[in-house]
Amino acid sequence: PVPSRRRASPSAWPRLPRRAVALIVDVEGARLSWVAHGVIEPPQDEALSVRLLHLFDALGAVIAQWAPDEAAIEETFVNMNPSSTLKLGHARAAAMLAPAKAGIMVAKYAALDIKKSVVGAGRAEKEQVLFMVRRLLPKAPDMKADAADALACAITHAHKRKMRGLAQTLTARSAPGANPPSRSEALGQLKRGEAS
After folding, report:
1. How far apart are CA 39 and CA 117, in angstroms?
2. In what order do the strands lie in the sheet with 106-109?
3. How confident is the model at residue 172 (pLDDT cuts 50, 70, 90)?
4. pLDDT digit string, tens, across residues 92-136
5. For a tag on the chain, would you pick the N or C end, based on fewer CB atoms within 10 A?
6. DSSP string, the chain
7. How far apart are CA 143 and CA 177, in angstroms?
8. pTM of the entire structure?
């Protein structure tokens, strides 16, 4: 069965000390289009538990408003400060629970994979990610680096989902007795969104 071609994918970039970003990218066939993005700013003068609840509730509201089919988040990296890493992990958990509560699976991607998918280099700078996100989603209004990072995560998810779908289609067609598609047929399916 082929899922519907229209996919809305929220993505979170959970930086609890400053902000988290939620967004939507619409996928139709091979085309991506910007739908919305925004910044969730937990109150910094509140306790960690209150900030986490604010993040969870705000992402829940985004999910309720846009009714996405899929979600994606960047994997947590471990830095030199264990306290900051732990807080980031808490924020990431809150960001993952909101879609899970709505019955939406959450895909996870490493920062290197996101940068490689969007820019072509896993060690790309934030400015390069921002530049490519603007090129890939030209209708998106001006955004900050955090929003670009979250949009890049959603773009990566859209790309990876299409590739997984294409691989599944090719595997099914190469089963004994099946006629495998030609390269041009497979790419045509990918462009039309039939392999997703």
Report:
1. 23
2. 31-40, 19-28, 7-15, 71-74, 106-109
3. low
4. 899 999 999 999 989 999 999 999 999 998 888 889 999 999 999
5. N
6. -PPPS-EEEEEEEEETTTEEEEEEEEEETTEEEEEEEEEE---TTS-HHHHHHHHHHHHHHHHHHH--S-EEEEPP---S-HHHHHHHHHHHHHHHHHHHHTT--EEEE-HHHHHHHHTS-TT--HHHHHHHHHHHSTTSPP--HHHHHHHHHHHHHHHHHHHHHHHHHHHHHTSTT--PPPHHHHHHHHHHTTT-
7. 51
8. 0.74
Residues in the chain: 196
Tokens, residue 28:
């139709």
Res 12 pLDDT > 60: no
